[in-house]
Structures are given as C-alpha cells and as structure tokens.
Amino acid sequence: QQPVQSPQAVILREGEDAVINCSSSKALYSVHWYRQKHGEAPVFLMILLKGGEQKGHEKISASFNEKKQQSSLYLTASQLSYSGTYFCGTRGDSGGGADGLTFGKGTHLIIQP
Amino acid sequence: DAGVIQSPRHEVTEMGQEVTLRCKPISGHDYLFWYRQTMMRGLELLIYFNNNVPIDDSGMPEDRFSAKMPNASFSTLKIQPSEPRDSAVYFCASSHPGHHTEAFFGQGTRLTVV
Asked: Which of A20, B18, B42, B85 is the most buried (most CB within 10 A)?
C-alpha cells in the first residue's frame, strides 16, 4: 500500500522550518526520503531503518517510529535550494532482498525569499 | 560512473504504436527498478529485477507492458500497443541489494502518446 504523506504542499519563507510526515498502514523495515526538483530525477536524501533512529543531513533530519509506522522529515532554517517535491519511500518488513520502494504522492515545498 | 542512463529522454508517439524505453544501470548494481510517474498517481513501481531476473512485476498495469533484462548492463520496457493514458515519465533506478541501500535514478523518459 502506498504511504500517505502530509501536508500535500507547503509554502515557506526562507529561514522557516518545515515538517513532512509519512505514514504507512503496514509494518515497515525502512523509510527512504528523496527530493525531486521539477524536470529532474528523484535524489536520495537519507534512509532510516527500524529501530527508531534519527538521522541528520546538514539542516535536514528525519525520524522513524516503527511502532507507529511513521516517519517525519525535518527541514530547519530552510534555504531556497530546498524547494522541490519530497517523497518518502517505504519497504515492508518482509525480510530479505531489496524489494522496490513504494512511494507516497509527495509533498510540494516552495521556499520564498 | 555516469550514473543510470536512460534513452530516449523524450518520446512522442501515436496511439497504437510500439514504444521501447531503454536503461543502463550503474555497473555493479544487482537490482534494477522501473517506475512510472504521473501527477495523479505519483511514483509507481512497475517491475524490478535482481541479477537480471524479474522478481516482482505486480505493478505492470496491463499485458501491453513488458520488460526484459537480457544482461546486467541493459534493460528495456516495452509498451505495445501504446495508449494516451500511458503518457508519463518513466524512470529506471538501480541499487545494491539490502534494505539500507539507496536507489539511484536515471533522468527519466518523458513519454507522450497522442
């Protein structure tokens, strides 16, 4: 099943913070976050494995709550370059292999000067 | 490495024609994925291969769609006959095995069926 992302769109001013949520109805092994700019391919941001870890990448970090089957992406002090569509991709807890990611419909993030 | 290479970048074809999309994965990657992206449905997994063998094709929408991977460095996605509703951006991605590995996406093929 496709994970559900919220919000669908966010408009921020440069320097403001944002949180993007990803929720699944099935048990997850991992959550993957990607960013896609218009007309380009999705680009990998980070992977979170079950265990409730939190990761950071400069001013972008994420958490994964395996019990709630939810992940959140945090963007702090947003920059103009953060604009784009953010996708979460999930892999089920079925074990073995590297089955294909199931992506949410994306969250459109617009950063204004 | 040049990354995942897809061709053509753009394809415009008439309804009923056969369309073949091509993908060259990153050397050494064991997994290859085909995705379709539309505004309505987002990124959908169509099929993926492991060591050139199709593992899951449950996302292939109809029998009109077929995919092959004759060797580790080449895959094709074929649509025959094509229909206007097939218009989308088709991405190919490759990765090493494992739940903790990232998928590297190609630049995509924008298909328009008129």
From this structure: A20
DSSP per residue, A36-103: E-TTS--EEEEEEETTT-EEEETTEEEEEETTTTEEEEEE-S--GGG-EEEEEEEEES--SS-PPPEE
Q: Which residues from chain B sit within 8 angstroms of residue A5, using beta carbons?
A: none
Cα(B47)–Cα(A77) distance, integer angstroms: 38
Question: pLDDT tens-digit profile of A65-94?
Answer: 888 889 999 999 999 999 999 999 998 766
Helix (H) or strand (E) holding A31: strand A28-36
Q: Are B91 and A104 in contact (CB < 8 Å)? A: no
The residue of B46, B99, B107 whose CB has the most chain A CBs within 10 angstroms, and thus the best one to mutate to test that interface, is B99
CB pair distance less than 8 Å for B45 and A102: yes
